[in-house]
Amino acid sequence: MNRYLITSARFDGEMEFRFDADGNLKYFENRAAMTDEMLAYLYKCFPFNLQLLGDLCKSTTTLRMVQVTVQVTFKEFYDAYGYKVGNKGRAEKLFNALTHAERYLAMEGIARYKAWLAAHPRTDMLYPETYLSQRRWENELPK
User: Fold this and answer.
1) Could you tell me what percentage of the chain is helix, strand and coil, using 3-state DSSP and rounding each to the nearest 5?
2) Which of 38, 68, 98 is the last residue of a domain?
3) Domain of 53, in residue numbers
4) How far apart are CA 102 and CA 96, in angstroms?
5) Rounded-to-integer distance, Cα 56 and Cα 130, Å
6) pLDDT tens digits, residue range 19-61?
7) Are 134 and 91 members of one domain?
8) High-pLDDT (> 70) share of the chain, %
9) Does the predicted model carry a pTM greater than 0.85?
10) CB atoms within 10 A of CB 108
């Protein structure tokens, strides 16, 4: 089963879609705070298969589709981040407050952030809780 999480800058939360091996929708859950107008649009263009979901996300710049194969745990995040300083308990609390999609994106952003740090050796690495609280994985890092 392929699992996709949809997030947007226009709503809080996420939508979860699960598709079988043939790309047919098997599960949908809306955990997003959406306006009536947004819900009407979603129902009008409801993605019954993976192709339609991809088309829906490509039709707008505000939707972001993330395929999630496993749920990211705090331990995995903390180990991948590698800079084990600061308040671990606060970092874990911040991590657990994220949606599944945000956890995945935060984890995905670590490699980009570390590459940027390597190119800027005079910049100190942020504490894990700062990375999480300031949502630094969303930054467009300058060259």
Assistant:
1) 45, 25, 30
2) 68
3) 2-68
4) 10
5) 34
6) 987 899 989 999 999 999 999 999 999 999 999 999 999 999 9
7) yes
8) 98
9) no
10) 13
